Amino acid sequence: MKTLKIMFFAAMTALLFAACEKEEEPQTTVDEAAANTLVINDKTYHLNSHYRISLSGRTYADGETTELGDDGIALFLVRADVEEGSANCTVDLTQSSSTVEYAFGVRGLSFYFSQDDHSDTDVYGSIGEENYESSIFTSGTMTATKTSDLFTYKVTGTLKSGDKVSFHLSVPASEWEHLDW
Description:
Strands 1, 2, 3, 4, 5, 6, 7, 8, 9, 10, 11, 12 and 13 form a 13-stranded mixed sheet that branches. It contains 1 helix and 13 strands; from the N terminus they run αβββββββββββββ. The radius of gyration is 23 Å and the shape is globular. Strand 2 (43-53) and strand 3 form a beta hairpin. It has 181 residues and is mainly beta. Helix content is 10%, strand content 46%.
């Protein structure tokens, strides 16, 4: 009987210490999306990505999800203006850049965000209906890369709303579109 009581108290002590252990901190980093995907709060959508070059040399990247709503329309659209000087660089999305200009946005039926940074303005953006006179990100980066073979545009970060977002547009040179304007 004495052995049974000792085992009971030992088990109760172990449970008490286990209950007092510090809970594991939630993950605060955002995983970078794989090529041609959009990730919102750990849910992945697949993208048909495009890279377009106008006659004036201005370039655009965009994509639409292959996942469709009940109306047959893509659940999300991704759009990026690829400004001259933004290729082959990485930008901290939490602050205004004095050297790189960019603009991008993601639009869905019930989820929308965009950020813009140009030399004539400070960084600004919106999350849903809320507009910001500063960055919409608490952490994040934008990377644009262009080689003779491939164009990529990646955004990964955490919005001020707490949403974790990442998208990765990737288009091989054989699929680049040359616009007539």
